[in-house]
Amino acid sequence: MKEVQTLGVLPLGRPTFDVAFAEEKLKAMLDALATSGKTLCGPATLLMDEAATKEGIEQIKAAKPDAVLILQVTFTDAGATMAAASAFDMPLGLWAVPEPRIGGRLRLNAFCGLNLASHALGRAGRPFSWMYTDPQSPDIGSELQALFRGERIVAPMDGVSLSPQTKGSEAVATLGGKRIARIGAHPDGFDTCRYDASKLKELTGIEVEELGLAGLFDTARAMPDEVVQDIRAAAERDLEGLESVNQEELDRSLRLKAALSALKDDGGYDAFAIRCWPETFTEYGGAVCGPVSMMGEARVPCACEADVYGAATQLLLQSVADSPVFLVDMVDMDVADDTGVVWHCGQAPISMADPKSDAQATIHTNRKMPLLYEFGLRPGRVTLMRLSQARGRHVMILAGAEMLERPMAFTGTSGVLRFDRPVSSVLPDIMNSGLEHHMALAYGDHGEALIAAAAALKLPVIRL
């Protein structure tokens, strides 16, 4: 953003997060902008849905600003960002806010919203500037001025193209003929989960079959009670506190595990990509997160939000690592501490649990239903990878890190890690690369094997 005099401000939020806390953050963001010397226009309250966002866009249009700044106060899908990108032919910026790592729920999850937005904008070829900064930081004034001067604009990354080789062909060969069942379509605004089955098959040899959520739910309801009891017994061996959650909702959740296992056997599927919300809660009445943990431990990867490429990524990493994998969101980056946080609702394989603390049965923080697994990830070497469609082409995005022995940052399954490169470099490269919001994680150092696999797949590599 250059020579900005009038700035349109579009504050985004969702009511499933901590609205009171989000309003506090929004006030601090607006206060910081008020001291920047810019004339502000647009809504001063959180825009909680599509209709409110549309009204906000029209309000900003009427003021004819020089640039538009989207305030990513909580997680949202990328729909609102893309609506703004289409509406304004002028510089566009995104500002997301961190939240404290105090062991409770993700109250805002704004970084994940920034991640979705950056991928969608990158895929659309739309330049943007960005910031991930606390509005009460002592450096906020200089950060904002850098944003306005265009110093925080994304710089697209091409990755390193590798010479074709056979070294990684063994792992790649394991993908040929694998089958992913996509159950339900990905949510609107999740460009990160878009896919073309023919392109995926051409790249990897993996086939995708599309199934409906209703069939999964019907299969779950029809599962024999004795099968569900066996699954409950397995969960009781893994978790403390199973008796403390709603038992009817728990039964429905466990039935989803039984149904996924039955579908795997009947259809010959190797992985699933499941539309996990909202219908599992609103139409069926139980969470699929705990069942996803169980399936992952059994080396049948499941990807949230019907993320087919996420499931394919898990299959490749699982083959290379010869161990269970976990599809994570990156939810925080702290430059001062030089750490990041990976998280998901409560679905990591139980073998990834820190043995120094008991894994707990819990409920979904937003939807309030079981079953979710809750534990901190154990310390150790980890590898993160994504078969990415960033900026409309295939690339492998790869990172190595050390999972640290730290208190749980957020509820669910989460871990604090230190990347091989400083967070001050990793964070901008996440934006510059156009990385999706899901990466697969496995324990161990598998970077060189994955680079060999990328060469066999003829994929350029971006190392975070």
Automatic annotation (TrEMBL):
Please indicate if the UniProt record lists Methyltransferase as a keyword.
Answer: no
GO cellular component annotations, sorted alphabetically? cytoplasm
GO biological-process terms attached to the record: fucose metabolic process
Named from the GO MF annotations, one term is:
L-fucose isomerase activity
Using the record's annotation, list all stretches that form the L-fucose isomerase C-terminal domain: 344-462
Q: Keywords, A to Z?
A: Carbohydrate metabolism, Isomerase
Q: Which Pfam families match?
A: Fucose_iso_C (PF02952)
Protein name, per record: L-fucose isomerase C-terminal domain-containing protein
Natural source organism: Hoeflea prorocentri
User: Lineage from the top down?
Assistant: Bacteria, Pseudomonadati, Pseudomonadota, Alphaproteobacteria, Hyphomicrobiales
